Amino acid sequence: LRFDEKVRVVVFKSEVKGVFCAGADLKERAKMDDAEVEHFVKRLRNLMDEIAALPVPTIAAIDGYALGGGLELALACDLRVAASSAKMGLIETTRGLLPGAGGTQRLPRCVGIGLAKELIFTGRQVDGQEAFSMGLVNHTVPQNSEGDAAYQRALALAKEILPQAPFAVKMGKLAINRGMEVDIASGMAIEGMCYAQNIPTRDRQEGMAAFREKRPPRFIGK
């Protein structure tokens, strides 16, 4: 996906009705020794980092339970859409654990430090509507009879992104992600570097020409 230039947006969904991702298999985990657990969690953390580093926008379609590592997977995505009936939570402390695949870092960046601490300390689960009210998800929708309402809304969101200039979208994502980790002056410099890379693109020239000619732009990702 990282190197396929035809990919414009990635949507993560589950094929299991009622469950986005229920997290690690604790029965499997119980059979591991301490060293194996550490290795397992490190690989999981690396996976989430790889998802977060995808250059194109990513959307998690949460149509059911997203617990523990399942919510960490959703947090590694850029955008999240949830069915109102979905259940989400970093429940690790209820099992004697703490989030180990990015949850302690990505949740506070998403909802704020105080709320993230409350959710992690209590292991509380929230539904889609609560998640929307706290900014954990971008959109919440009533579940449908097929059980894929969040996926359908995620597809609609993806189709809003698709017509836009692909390289500009990628640079926008890069500027936001890198800029959030530094002070605002450094962030402005990062934005400037990303903008400079976009200036010579054919898509920028096409966007300007389409504006002048009062027609829809035809972006090619170059």
From TrEMBL:
Gene Ontology CC: mitochondrion
Matching PROSITE patterns: ENOYL_COA_HYDRATASE
Pfam families hit by this protein: ECH_1 (PF00378)
One Gene Ontology biological process: fatty acid beta-oxidation
Source species, domain of life: Eukaryota
Keywords from the UniProt entry: Lyase
UniProt xrefs under InterPro entries: ClpP/crotonase-like_dom_sf (IPR029045), Enoyl-CoA_hyd/isom_CS (IPR018376), Enoyl-CoA_hydra/iso (IPR001753), Enoyl-CoA_hydra_C (IPR014748)
GO molecular function: enoyl-CoA hydratase activity
CDD domains named among the record's database cross-references: crotonase-like
Keyword Lyase annotated: yes
Family named by the database record: Belongs to the enoyl-CoA hydratase/isomerase family.
Official protein name in the record: ECHD2 protein
Organism name: Ceuthmochares aereus
Gene that this polypeptide is encoded by: Echdc2
